[in-house]
Design brief:
Elements lengths: L2 E6 L7 H9 L4 E4 L8 E5 L2 E5 L12 E4 L4 E2 L1 H13 L8 E4 L3 E2 L2 H14 L11 H10 L5 H4 L2 H22 L6 H15 L3 E2 L1 H10 L4 E4 L24 H5 L10 E7 L2 E3 L10 H9 L13 E3 L1 E2 H11 L3 E5 L10 E9 L2 E3 L6 H6 L1 E7 L17 H14 L2 E6 L7 E3 L1
The structure holds guanosine-5'-diphosphate, 6-O-phosphoryl inosine monophosphate and magnesium ion.
C-alpha cells in the first residue's frame, strides 16, 4: 500500500494529467481533492485526446477506481456532460466513479458573479476561467453552500435552491446583471442530480476501506502551487489549496497516511490569466505558440510563457514537501540556444531565494539568470535516460538540483510512451 500526492509545482498546466495517466498503471484509486472544472488535464492515448475537468485522469484506465473528493466544487450539469463525452469515446464510467456527498455545488449564479466581479476589477482582473470557482468556494466558507447530498434530496434541494436564487438575484441586480431563473436551474439540476445519484457516496469511508485492503492511491492535484489560495501569488490565485495539504483536507485521508509527494513541472514556465510571471519571455512564447503549443485546455487562451524559475520551484518543494520530480515538455526546448534558468530574484541590493508574499514586492524583483547550452536535437523519440543528449541531461539534473528534489521522470512528448524513468 502506498499513497502518492501529485501536485503542480508552478502555475498549473504542468502536465499533471499525463503523469497521472502514466502512474495510474500501477495504482488502484485516483482521487481529485480540490478545484473544479477550471482544471483541464490532457491525456493522449494513441491519437485520441482526452481533456478531463472534474473526473480524475485515472478514469482512462479500466478497472481503476476514481474519486471526486469533498474538496472539489462540482458543477453537476458540466459533470454529466463530461461523463457523456467520455462514454461517447467508449471510456467506462460506471461503478468505477465515486463522488463525495459533501462536495459543494457550483451554480449559474456563481459563474455570473465570477464574471461580474472580473468586470468590476477591470484592468486589475484575475483572469479567471469564469467557471464560478471563487464564488462557489466563497459560499462554502460562508457556510451558505449547497452540496451533492442536497442535490440528491429533491425536496430539500428545491427549498434551498429557491432561497439561494432569491438572495443571489438581489446581488446580481446590484451588479446590473441578468437574473437567474429558478425554474430553469432547478429543472436542469434535478436532471443532473438523478444522473449523478448512483455515484454519490461517503468517499471518506470508501478510501479508508481501500487503504485497509492495501490499495495504492494517487491524489491528482489541480492547478499549481502558485495558484494556491494561501501560498500563491494572491489575489492572482484560485480559491482552493492546490498544495499537498489540500490532498488531505479534500479527501479525508489523514497526513500520516501519505507516503510521497511528486511535483510536476515543465522544463520552462507557463501561466494563464493575470498576475506576476517574472521570467516571462516573448522569445519562448513565440516559439511554443508557433508550434501550436501552450493554449489552455479549458479556455483555449494562449498561455504566457517564460524561462524555468527555480526560485519558484524550490519554494514549491518547501511548501509541498516534494520528494520526487516529474519534468515535462523537455522537448519544448529542443531548438533553443542558450537556455536561461532563473536562479535568484534581485530586489534592490538584496538577493532573494524564495518567492515574496506581497505581489507588489514580487513585481519589483528582477530575475537573475544562469545560462545553459542548448542540445539542439529532437528528444521526442528518446525513451531512455542515457540516450538523451548529454546537454539535456545536464539541464534536467541542474533544474532538479535547484528545485531541491529528486528527478524521477522526464517527459518528452504528450504520449504515454514518451516518458523516461530514472
Ligand atoms: P495539466 O493541467 O497539468 O494536466 O496540464 P495540461 O493538460 O493543461 O497542459 C499540459 C499540455 O502539455 C497538454 O497539452 C499535454 O498533452 C502536454 N504535454 C504533457 N507532457 C508533455 C511533454 O513532455 N511534451 C509535450 N510536447 N507535451 C506535453
Ligand atoms: P489545471 O488543473 C492553469 C487560473 C486562471 C486564473 C486563476 C483563477 O489544468 O492546471 P479560477 O477560475 O480558478 O478562479 O481562476 O487560476 N487557473 C488555472 N491555470 N491551470 C489550471 O488548472 C487553472 N485553474 C485555474 O487562469 O489565473
Ligand atoms: Mg491544465
Amino acid at each position: 500500500m502506498s499513497n502518492t500526492i501529485l501536485v503542480g509545482a508552478q502555475w498549473g498546466d504542468e502536465g499533471k494529467g499525463k503523469i497521472i495517466d502514466v502512474l495510474t498503471e500501477n495504482a488502484d484509486v485516483v482521487v481529485r481533492t480540490q478545484g473544479g472544472n477550471n482544471a483541464g488535464h490532457t491525456v493522449f492515448i494513441g491519437p485520441q485526446k482526452y481533456v478531463l475537468h472534474l473526473i480524475p485522469s485515472g478514469i482512462l484506465r479500466r478497472s481503476k477506481s476514481c474519486v471526486i473528493g469533498s474538496g472539489v466544487v462540482i458543477d453537476p450539469v458540466s459533470l454529466v456532460a463530461e461523463i457523456d463525452g467520455l462514454l461517447k469515446l467508449k471510456v467506462q464510467v460506471a461503478e468505477n466513479l465515486f463522488i463525495s456527498e459533501t462536495a459543494h455545488l457550483v451554480f449559474p449564479y456563481h459563474r455570473e458573479l465570477d464574471e461580474q466581479r472580473e468586470l468590476l476589477k477591470g484592468e486589475h482582473k484575475i483572469g479567471t476561467t469564469k467557471r464560478g470557482i471563487g464564488p462557489a468556494y466563497g459560499d462554502k466558507a460562508a457556510r451558505t453552500g449547497l452540496r451533492m447530498i442536497d442535490l440528491i434530496n429533491p425536496a430539500r434541494f428545491e427549498a434551498q435552491l429557491k432561497l439561494k436564487i432569491r438572495e443571489n438575484n438581489e446581488v446580481l441586480k446590484a451588479f446590473g446583471a441578468k437574473q437567474i431563473s429558478f425554474k430553469q436551474v432547478h429543472a436542469a439540476y434535478r436532471v443532473a442530480g438523478d444522473r449523478l445519484k448512483p455515484f454519490v457516496t461517503n468517499t471518506v469511508v470508501f478510501l479508508d476501506k481501500a487503504m485497509r485492503r492495501g490499495a495504492d492511491i494517487l491524489f491528482e492535484g489541480a492547478q499549481g502551487t502558485f495558484l494556491d489560495i494561501d501560498h500563491g501569488t494572491y489575489p492572482f490565485v484560485t480559491s482552493s489549496n492546490t498544495t499537498a495539504g489540500g490532498a488531505c483536507t479534500g479527501s479525508g485521508v489523514p497526513p500520516n497516511r501519505m507516503d510521497r509527494v511528486v511535483g510536476v513541472m515543465k522544463a520552462y514556465t507557463t501561466r494563464v490569466g493575470e498576475g506576476p510571471l517574472l521570467t516571462e519571455s516573448a522569445e519562448i512564447a513565440d516559439l511554443l505558440h508557433a508550434m501550436g503549443r501552450e493554449f489552455g485546455a479549458t479556455t483555449g487562451r494562449a498561455r504566457r510563457c517564460g524561462w524555468f524559475d527555480s526560485v519558484a520551484t524550490r519554494h514549491a518543494t518547501m511548501v509541498n514537501g516534494i520528494d520526487e520530480l516529474a519534468v515535462t515538455n523537455l522537448d519544448g526546448l529542443d531548438t533553443l540556444e542558450p537556455i536561461k534558468v532563473c536562479i535568484g530574484y534581485r530586489l534592490g541590493q538584496a538577493r532573494l531565494d524564495y518567492v515574496p508574499n506581497d505581489v507588489e514586492t514580487l513585481l519589483k524583483c528582477q530575475p537573475i539568470y544562469a545560462e545553459f547550452p542548448g542540445w539542439r536535437t529532437p528528444t521526442d523519440r528518446v525513451r531512455e535516460w542515457k540516450k538523451l543528449p548529454p546537454k539535456a541531461r545536464a539541464y534536467l539534473k541542474a533544474i532538479a538540483e535547484l528545485t531541491d528534489a529528486k528527478l524521477t521522470i522526464a517527459s518528452v512528448g504528450p504520449a504515454r510512451d514518451q516518458t523516461i524513468f530514472l
